[in-house]
Amino acid sequence: MSKLRKSSKQKLYAGCIGAGIVGIIFAGYLMVNIHQMNEVRKQAEVEAELKWKVYEQEQRTAKKGWAVVRDISPGEQIASNDLKGIKVPGSQAPSNLLANKSEVSGTTAKIELKKGSVLTSSMITADEPTPKDLRNRELKVVVLPNSLKSGDEVDIRIQFPTGQDYILLSKKKISRLEGPIVWVTLNEQEILSLSSAIVDAYLHKASIYALTYVDPQFQPKAIPTYPPNAQVLALMNSDPNLIHIAEQKLSKQLRGSLENAINSSNSVISTPVERSLSEEIAAQHAGATIENPTSGIDVTRNEYENEQDHQEQTKILTQGGSSDPYAK
Q1: DSSP string, 230-270
Q2: What's the half-sphere exposure (Cβ side, CA atoms, 13 Å) at 63?
Q3: What pTM was estimated for this model as a whole?
Q4: Distance of alpha carbon 324 from its chain centroid, rounded?
Q5: Integer angstrom CA distances of residue 59 from 67, 89, 91, 210
Q6: Fold observed for domain 63-125
Q7: Which residues are CB-neighbours of 278 under 8 A, at least 6 positions away?
Q8: 246 with 201: CB under 8 angstroms?
Q9: Distance (Å, rounded) from C-alpha 70 to C-alpha 7?
Q10: What is the spatial distance between Cα 166 and Cα 129, in angstroms, rounded to a whole number?
């Protein structure tokens, strides 16, 4: 019995020791785990406090902006009910962010705007939407100033041999310039007026020329005074190719006059090109010959072609029932 009791006591002691060791290990694990959790909590609190400070800073420096509440197509007008006020963090706000609703409402979208797009000045324009009938027009029949350059604004006028002078196109920006050829943008009405003027110039020996503005930013747009000729419009309707024929003839005449002016200026350095060109055009209109100042030789320019053109013009005018629609 004594041996059994002794053995039981030893087992009990061993169990207690084992349980104590396990308890110590578990307690140590709990202590380490609690310490780690405290560290994580402290770190999370620090990060949360830092984020809150950043948020408060952003709220103090946030800029007001406007976003669209629906998709808007290019060229479409932005209405007041298309806008929603937002706040953009100062660190993320673009320099051209629009803060005032009045700066946005009523403007036109330059590009496609998706719902939620934050508006900047580069995305919109205060100008009127581009008209649907606006087109680029190449002009080869206009006498241009020597100092003309791309980007200048001009009035394009037509002058008849009788001295009548009309404003054909008003304050047109030269979008492109290549030698004697210019490009401008015209609407449908201006295209029709120009077509009428080109045929008029061909039939009645008129000249189409350009004048630049002195200060286009402050000078208002002139009012066009050229009255489209009803007879010419009727001729154009009866013969759709007439405008192309007239433009080709005028372009050819202008090119010939320009070449003569260049040759004349090369021969006589003191003679301005503009004066030579004007004299050449005037001589063509009058059907006269030009005397070369250096050689004293009379030069007749394409008499046969001029005679053919004259006969063709007379025929066209006779078909229209009048030889001088601008006669008073």
Answers
A1: HHHHHHHHH-TTHHHHHHHHHHHHHHHHHHHHHHHHHH-TT
A2: 17
A3: 0.50
A4: 42
A5: 18, 7, 11, 57
A6: Type Iii Antifreeze Protein Isoform Hplc 12 (3.90.1210)
A7: none
A8: yes
A9: 88
A10: 29
Residues 245 and 203: beta-carbon distance below 8 Å: no
Token duo for residue 87: 């706040």
Q: What would the pLDDT profile of 197-246 be if each residue is shown by its tens digit?
A: 888 888 888 999 999 999 988 899 999 999 877 776 676 666 666 667 77
Cβ pair 277, 257 in contact under 8 A: yes
- Residue 170, classed as helix, strand or coil, is strand
Residue with tokens 């050819």: 252
Q: Which helix (H) or strand (E) holds 136?
A: strand 135-139
Q: HSE on the CB side for 269, CA within 13 Å?
A: 0
Angle at 297 between CA 270 and CA 207, to 5 degrees: 65
Burial of 239 (0-12, 13-18, 19+ CB in 10 A): middle
What residue spans define the domains of the chain? Answer: 63-125, 133-328
Tens-place pLDDT, residues 127-139:
666 777 788 999 9
Contact (Cβ atoms closer than 8 angstroms) between residue 202 and residue 261: no
User: What's at 12, amino acid-wise?
Assistant: L
The tokens for 254 are 């202008």
Would you say 159 and 165 are in contact if contact means Cβ atoms under 8 Å apart? yes
- C-alpha 234: how far from chain center: 35
